[in-house]
Amino acid sequence: MFLANSVKAKNSKLGASWLWTFSLVMLLAGGPISYAASPVSDHPPVEPNTMLMPWPMNIEREKGELHLTGHWQLKLEGKASEHKDWVIQALANNELSIEPNQQANRLTIKVEETNTRYPSIDSQYSYQLSVGENGVTITASQIWGALAAIQTLAQLTYQQQQLAFYQISDYPRFVWRGLLIDSVRHFMPLDVIKRQLRGMAAAKLNVFHWHLTDDQGWRFESVHYPKLQQLASDGQYYTRAQIKELVQYAASLGIRVVPELDLPGHASAIAVAYPELIAKPGEYQMERHWGVFEPLLDPSNEAVYTFADKLVGELAELFPDSYLHIGGDEIYPPQWKDSEKIQAFMAKNNLQNETQLHAYFNLRLQKILAKHHKHMMGWDEIYDEQLPRDILIQSWRGLDSIRQFASQGYQGILSTGFYIDQPQYSDFHYRNDPQKVVYEAESETGISSHVDLAGTKHWQRYALTIPRLKGSSVKGDLTLLYDADNQVSGYLSLNNQTARIIANVWRAQDIVSFEVDSWMGPLRFHMGLNSDCEQWVMIGNASYSLESQLIESRKGNRVTQAYAPLAELTDPQKQNILGGEAALWSEMVTAGNIDLRLWPRLFVVAERLWSKASRRNIMLTHLYERLNTINGYAAEVVGLSHRQQQKSWPAAKLPQDKQAAFEVFSQLLEPAHYYTRHHLKFRQDLYHQMAPLNRMADYLPVESLAIQQLLTPLKEFKTPDKAVLNELAIKLSQWQQAGDILKTEFSRSGTLSDYSAVFNKSKASLDLMQELVSQCSELSIEQLKDYRQRFHRLAQVEQEMVVALAANADILLRVCM
């Protein structure tokens, strides 16, 4: 077992090199890379069997170890026996075998309180887990905490023969730790949903937000309005019996289920079944395309409120949770504007515009929900000061938005930055935080948490434009500050949002590069300080063009576009932020690749919502190391299907003797990040429900864990290290060998001939990276700039994919500076 002191190793070039050598040997051997760490407390794991995710609030290692026999004797105390079936199910789900024999380890579970049949927003998930010579003891006030503790025990014992003695006292940071699954755009069978619920339980997520209605379909059986499922579901919907079954199954895992009924917009499916309720009555066909469409319910029609009342009543019978999500987003108003009847209704009720009409509708709807003992939940657009403070607002517009709600006494949860259908790197999700002060710089970047204007000797202000493949361009306002040593810092505002401090600033003559997180994902700018320079911005791994224009350039610290961080939320205001929720919209997701899109990244989001905020920067350093272990755990113990789904594509395309080489070579590739693939399909008229999702990009993981793990240690270095570069060269050679095996398959006559261009870019990226490794310590600034441009060209999107090695080349380039 690897027990080196990583604190010393990280501060010693020799120690770090040895650590890297060991890690790469493990990677090439096919096993998980494991870095040692200092003793357990607020520090990363001590050894592989403490690769917990989410990381507990408090964990202490004690002297001694428990020999694991592979079986457990189970003893239930207090109220635990009232939920015996749930406990046994949780143990079985995690391959913790219960056999009452003398060789089995003792497992005692004590629950102090009697609970209801279903978890609620007030449920307690805290627990204590003790490992000692007498076995394992779990104590929790409620069954939900005991179920969470079983997940911790399963991770502790994963691939272990000895279990160290621990004292764990754990509880979640946020009460709302959710996942939205969209079952409308692509239908998700019940067994697929159940599998994701088991994954949620393993990650200690506790709210399943079930998106059941939208423009492209109606997915639950209605008793009062049967034409909804008869005419607007294509026969794909959940019966009442199935819904009851799933809600009960979720409860047994400690998970609440909150349904979403979209009103008054996203109503195309309602228009197909009951057009008389729509602001513009007429004959409607099923909507097959993705986007925002015109059909809106008619707020002037009393039958609409009867319709809402009956449906809310039906959902109240099926879903015991106290919250019901009403959507309320993306109200596209032409039908309201063009209706003489609705305009007359607005005048009669002194409603000045369509925003006020929407608020009127929501006030009526809120009273209907209250009648059925439900709290209203909806997206940002439902916010209105006339609504009571017990509503819950889910923010897709970002941290600025949720701060506004929280500061005015409304409760909210954050989804911006947790859009899991949007391919992004896990460390981006990990840096996201619902209660974060939006505008502080991350301490791990080395940039201070404020801008010192007093130290500014010279500053420049630029107007930036990022053209997108679909929709309007993103506008930026960038201020660069130069101190007496000509070091650069600065801040950036995008689309008039509050400015954020830029990080990881690098300047080489007429080029400046920097990073900043945004609602689109992590942004990496390569900007020219004069008009002759090639410039771009990376959104995740996807390259977009960048336009810049110098607006001001002056001496001194009197900056006209001053940086003004917002005041910290008060503690009561922070308490209004209940947590966060990952969102999986299914335009590009089917039952055949849903696990691959969710896992293992969802464990990262889960940790941000469970664990201490203060541990973020410490744990971020070891994120991909831990995620690699969790990746195996999720497949081998929890039974998630992300690995099988990834292998299904090459299994259908390649002979068996080539599939292993493809698995290695495909580590070089990632699907294009952000909504790049969505926008490309829109341009090709393939952005609709009937378009096949059977490309290589559909069956690649969102990020290459192999590349992320390989490159992470390079972030520790400021200058080249020969041993590290040698080991990197070994891995590059391994990818080259896999490519040689697959060369004929990617040829013009080969099975994968459609992907020959991306294959050629991958091979060229390997050649260029090997060249860079061999010359790293001898490069001039001009050569570094040239390498950066060459890698950037190789990182251009091809067949909706990106060569991840080229897209991440900056990590090595910084070492070679």
Automatic annotation (TrEMBL):
<dbReference type="InterPro" id="IPR015883">
    <property type="entry name" value="Glyco_hydro_20_cat"/>
</dbReference>
<dbReference type="InterPro" id="IPR025705">
    <property type="entry name" value="Beta_hexosaminidase_sua/sub"/>
</dbReference>
<dbReference type="InterPro" id="IPR029018">
    <property type="entry name" value="Hex-like_dom2"/>
</dbReference>
<feature type="domain" description="Glycoside hydrolase family 20 catalytic">
    <location>
        <begin position="559"/>
        <end position="612"/>
    </location>
</feature>
<feature type="domain" description="Glycoside hydrolase family 20 catalytic">
    <location>
        <begin position="174"/>
        <end position="433"/>
    </location>
</feature>
<keyword id="KW-0378">Hydrolase</keyword>
<dbReference type="GO" id="GO:0016020">
    <property type="term" value="C:membrane"/>
</dbReference>
<dbReference type="Pfam" id="PF00728">
    <property type="entry name" value="Glyco_hydro_20"/>
</dbReference>
<feature type="active site" description="Proton donor">
    <location>
        <position position="330"/>
    </location>
</feature>
<dbReference type="GO" id="GO:0030203">
    <property type="term" value="P:glycosaminoglycan metabolic process"/>
</dbReference>
<dbReference type="GO" id="GO:0004563">
    <property type="term" value="F:beta-N-acetylhexosaminidase activity"/>
</dbReference>
<dbReference type="InterPro" id="IPR017853">
    <property type="entry name" value="GH"/>
</dbReference>
<keyword id="KW-0326">Glycosidase</keyword>
<dbReference type="GO" id="GO:0005975">
    <property type="term" value="P:carbohydrate metabolic process"/>
</dbReference>
<comment type="similarity">
    <text>Belongs to the glycosyl hydrolase 20 family.</text>
</comment>
<feature type="domain" description="Beta-hexosaminidase bacterial type N-terminal">
    <location>
        <begin position="52"/>
        <end position="171"/>
    </location>
</feature>
<dbReference type="Pfam" id="PF02838">
    <property type="entry name" value="Glyco_hydro_20b"/>
</dbReference>
<dbReference type="InterPro" id="IPR015882">
    <property type="entry name" value="HEX_bac_N"/>
</dbReference>
<protein>
    <recommendedName>
        <fullName>N-acetyl-beta-glucosaminidase</fullName>
    </recommendedName>
</protein>
